[in-house]
């Protein structure tokens, strides 16, 4: 993928609908990897469908959870994936093999999980009505301190480089903790112009730059700069760079995020399938993307590199992209597109057998041949490199290999094993036969498979009987229906009892 040729000279945001991704199951949440080559989609039946985004095909299906998947996060090189389910379980998956490495069982529902941007051994967990937890794959966990012990509606997020964790509560208080020692580095309060505060719903960081946005309950998206927040220190009063809102409809925002270059912000409406796009530097609304009427939006993500947005509504992933127009002048600067035939004017000596200006061109060519052109070194693509790094990651997992399905394989179509590996296979078969398990069916093909470990995370004062918001809506509707159904039944039974108590006149 040549990014220089894909860049457009005009707007850098999607303009129209560009198809859907049907995961067979009902999609709930989705997340791109760092390069945008793979898209992980969490479904309501517990499956995780990984799409090859370039071919728009399913590359792998991971079946691990039983209940709906509510949150997903990739690690830095794309080799691992952490998922949270509504059954209070958090699992870490090996993307290449599809095996589950660790499973963490929490006492309360999990609202969000996020991998550390630089360290694949650390991830952040946001339980429901509990303080955020900083987890380590070595079975260690640290609970982030609370500003108010009675305010337990906490949202949290790593910053772009993973040096700090930003937390927000229902009183509009945002605290910044250092990841190393969990020390409070800065704090401020989100206010609504007066002394009134508003609840923080989510905190999202841009992939480039030092900006982050705060989605609050007053239906205003505030954009801050992390450097200014840290400079103000504790109990600071930083001013937001931009305040974005829908002044006409007063829309409540379900999900907000930055574009790949951090120049645009997209927000999904909580009432309908509508996406609002703003330009961060100016703060003006540039586009509104409308989906099917009557659908409710669940999740919105922006492609890390290209102007593409993926949104989820009614269990289907919708793709929004630009209308690509063929521009051949990008490959040949002297190329001209003609609407009608034009009489061509022949240049002098253009079709001559011997060119009179040949000597002059040869002399120029000899002078240009002295310049050495480096064709061996590969320069890193700036879109894939962070500002504090020089080169790209060499161990990045960009694509998933697919094995061809052979219906009628010929004899010897598979390549033989190397001699050293064949000796190991023979020794293993001999040991299996001596132990009494000589059948080939009993020999496990995945002997190098990692053993799955289950870890029970004990959180003090964690709510046990809480129901996840994804399930709470369904159960509340079921309760309403059961009440409606039960009322006539009780009345009928009461009438029948009263009738049975009356003495019969025909006895």
Report on this structure.
The structure is a single chain. Helices cover 14% and strands 32% of the residues. It is an alpha+beta fold and 507 residues long. The relative contact order is 0.13. The radius of gyration is 30 Å and the shape is globular. The strands form seven sheets. The protein has a five-stranded mixed beta sheet with strand order 6-7-8-9-29, with no helix packed on it. Strands 1-28-27-26 form a four-stranded antiparallel beta sheet, with no helix packed on it. A four-stranded antiparallel beta sheet has the order 2-3-4-5, with no helix packed on it.
First and last CA, distance: 92 Å
The SS-based structural class is: alpha+beta
Whole-number mean pLDDT? 81
Extended strand count: 29
**Over all CA atoms, what is the radius of gyration?**
30 Å
Strand arrangement, largest sheet? 6-7-8-9-29
So how many helices?
Answer: 5
Which descriptor suits the 3D outline?
globular
Q: Report on the biggest sheet.
A: 5 strands, mixed
Unreliable sequence segments: 437-447, 474-507
Give the proportion of residues in helices: 10-25%
Task: Tag the structure with descriptive keywords.
single chain; 507 residues; alpha+beta; five-stranded mixed β-sheet; four-stranded antiparallel β-sheet; 5 helices; 29 strands; disordered C terminus
Topology, pairings included?
Elements: H1 3-6, E1 16-21, E2 27-32, E3 38-43, E4 47-52, E5 57-63, E6 69-74, E7 80-85, E8 89-94, E9 100-105, E10 110-115, E11 122-127, E12 133-136, E13 140-143, E14 155-158, E15 164-168, E16 173-178, E17 184-189, E18 200-205, E19 211-216, E20 221-225, H2 226-232, E21 242-244, E22 253-258, E23 264-269, E24 274-279, E25 285-290, E26 297-302, E27 309-313, E28 316-321, H3 358-369, H4 419-434, E29 453-456, H5 469-501
Parallel strand pairs: 9-29
Antiparallel strand pairs: 1-28, 2-3, 3-4, 4-5, 6-7, 7-8, 8-9, 10-11, 11-12, 12-13, 14-15, 15-16, 16-17, 18-19, 19-20, 20-21, 22-23, 23-24, 24-25, 26-27, 27-28
